[in-house]
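Margin note from the TA: students keep mixing up input and output lines. Inputs are the sequences; the output is the structure of the whole complex. Example:
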Amino acid sequence: MPRILKCHVGVGPRVTGTALVTDDNFSARYDLDRIRGIFSRPQHKLAGESYVDRVLVVNTAKGGVASAWMLHEMASRGMAPKAILFNRVNPILAQGGALANMALCDRFEDGDVTGLIQTGEIVTVDPARGEVIIG
Amino acid sequence: MTEPMRLTEEEKSMLAGDWGYPRQWAMEHLLRVGAFFDAERLTEVSQAHMMADTESLGEAGVAFIEELAACPKDEREVRIPMITDPRGIDFAHYRELGQEEWMADLEQRAIDAFKALGILMTDTCINYQTIMPPARGERLAFGDTGVVIYCNSVLGAYSNFEGGPSALAAGLTGRVPCYGLHLDENRRATKRFRLEYQPRNLVEWGALGALVGKRTGSYWDVPVIENVEGPLSSDELKHLGAAMASYGSVPLYHLVGITPEAPELSSVCNPDNLAAEAVTEQDFADYFGTYGNQGDKVDVVVFSAPQLSLLELAELASILDGKTVHRDTTLLAVTSPVVAADARRLGISGQIEAAGGRVLQGMCFYQSYAREMGEANGWTSLLSNSAKLVNIIGGYGYQPALASMRDCVAAAVAGEIV
């Protein structure tokens, strides 16, 4: 039986993918090797993991403004996550999602989204409805 | 569902395409972002500042800008003064840094496209020190987190973090969505810190920013710090804010009795409802303990992030006087084109170069293909006095260490941390 999580209305298209979950934070500049499509920052809890085509579930955004351009650049090469879910996102990632047409949502009604979704689960993200369907 | 934003007749006209494709794209982008953050309307802004390095833009971003730049002149030019953050290339030095021709080619394409949009290529993250410092209450669309936090906190201006696409949309329309720090209720303190150790130099102000940024940890929280002994210099506030924004994605802080919105603690919070956390000397020691050890080899010493002011460059030249950088170590000092011109005219750059250092302009180390530079030069161990830089650069394959400017110079001369 699928579970449905309600969140704030997001940006980007409806997509389905496999979840990659951490309670760590996210910055395209600070954390990624964008050429190889992996987390490269040694201290990051997903260090070494590929984020390509995954539904990435993280706590919040961190760091600088570069991620806004970078999501667009990553998507243009097919080396981006399918979607990113946050507990609370900063303006930069939302702006980047808007330009890249990447599914991106935050503010989940049932609490900490990094505890509501498990790595490996199949997840459908529907930003226009503010819904995430698991299973 | 979110209510649609209220638009003026002029905004509706831009959205309908009456002003051409670039402004129509910009309005659509602003509305998407505004809806995400429940903005009820747009607000006018007086300046825009955009991240424009090609490492973040990539081929796709440059092609996107070129598409806008190909539109008719009256449709494509920005409506308000618009300037740029550091680029990825210093054209006078890129080959010796191991940067490649394709990077310079992409950079030149981006520059040509930005110029066609009427954007002034200032290439700086210290525009508040060098170009046009905003006035209190001025509404802005600024990129670069260090720029935004300084202008909000020290100058009392109003800006959210505006990534490149949103800063560009603001430049084309003269508008941003009215949410976040454009609303006074979001500028009140939500975290309270009490300083029990007074920083003594720039790297320690950066460390304070790191400590408070890490504990704040959210764009939507605002820290207030008590017991800071002022007055502080612009460079001290610059390092404090840049590190806080880097570690915590924090866009605004208050220093009681120092920054303009916090003449008293009660100006920004109800002290009875907000308990204070101490920031102690041990916190500083623990933080520095995570970055570098005596005897560690140093491949490259970098003064950057933010770009150096003229006074920082002068201090660096003074410390380097009579010394020579070790043959196996590279020393880079990065500044804005405006400061670089003054430093050259005043002989400051010559002093740094005479000691074996290099002065770079218009770029910032981490925005300049840092991974490729490291691989080309065999750089892995990096030493800096910038808390912001050491926070960022680990993801680019470096092992960063942090020290004061004086200790960084000593390490550059010895080839290892001393």
